[in-house]
Amino acid sequence: MGSVNMDNRYDTYTDDVEKKENSLMSLMKDRYKTMSKGQKLLAQYTLDNYQKVAFMTASKLGETVGVSESTVVRFANALGFSGYPKFQDALQELIKTKLTTVQRVEMANNDYSNNSMILENVLKDDIENIKQTMDSLRQESYEDAVDTILSARKLYIMGLRSSIYVAKYLGYYLNYILDNVVIIRMDMGEPVEQMIKLSSEDVLISISFPRYSKKNQQVVRFAKERGAKVIAITDTINAPIAKVADVVVTVKNNMVSFIDSLVPAFSVANAIVVGVAMKEKEDIKAYFKELEKVWEKFEIYE
Prior knowledge:
The chain is α/β, with parallel strands linked by helices. It is built from 13 helices and 5 strands. The protein has helices at 6-30, 37-53, 58-65, 69-78, 84-95, 101-111, 118-136, 139-151, 164-177, 191-194, 214-225, 263-279, 281-297; strands spanning 155-159, 181-183, 203-208, 229-234, 247-250. Helix 2 packs across helix 4 (69-78) and helix 9 packs parallel to helix 12 (263-279). Strand 1, helix 9 and strand 2 form a beta-alpha-beta unit. The protein has a 5-stranded parallel beta sheet with strand order 2-1-3-4-5. The protein folds into 2 domains: 6-95, Arc Repressor Mutant, subunit A; 136-297, Rossmann fold.
C-alpha cells in the first residue's frame, strides 16, 4: 500500500457532505418546474425544513404539507429514489453529523410523543436498522475483517464515547478466543501511548459513528503511519475513518431518538466473534475446558 496523505483524506470529509447537501437541494430546485402542484409543496417544505423531513414518515409529511401519502412517494420517485425510505436515508445521511444533542431531543419529542408507543416504535426502529445492515454489509467485507483479525500479531480495539461499549463487548469475547487482544481504555492514558509498540504486524479495530470523534480519527492516522492494518466499523464508506481503512464494515445506526442505535453494531460484533471462533474452534474447546475447571473451583456460577 502506497503512502497516504492522511490530512487531505480527513479534510475532504466535510467537503463531501457539503457537496451531497448542495447536490440534493439543487436536484429539488432543478426538477421543481416539472413537478405537480402537490410535489412542489413538498419540495418547498423540504428545502425549508429538511432536518425535520429526514425523520418524518411519509404519512406525517403528507399530513403536514396537506397532500396524500401517495403524493409523497411520487415526490421521492420524481427525484430519482426508488421510494420514500431511500429519500429519507439520503436526508439523514446529510444531517446526522450536524445535529446537536438539543436538536435531537426536539426531534425525539415529535417522533416519540405518544408514550404508549415508545417501546414498540424504538424496537421497530432497531429491527429496521438491523435489516438495513444485513442488506448493505458486504459478505466479503465481513470475511476480510475476520481474516485480518486472525492475522494480527496484536489486536487493538478502540471505540470512543458511546462506541466504547461496543469495543469492550467485542474485546471481551475475542479475548476468550485470542490471547493478543488489547482494548484501548481512556482511563489508561492517551490511546497512542497504549499503542506505542504498534507495528505493521498489528491490527487496529476502530469503531466510530456520528458525531465522529476527532480523537478516533487521530488514532487511526497514527496506526496508518505505523503501517498497521485498520478495520473500520462505522456507518458508511464515506465516514472519515473508512476513507483510509484497509477493511470497512458498515453498520446502520439511524437515530431512534436523541441517541444513535448501537444495536446493529452489537449484532455485527457478535457475528465477528462467531466468525473468528469458527476458525479457531479446536483451540477454543481446550480453552473452555480449562476455564470451566477454574469457574468450578472458584464457584463463579451457581
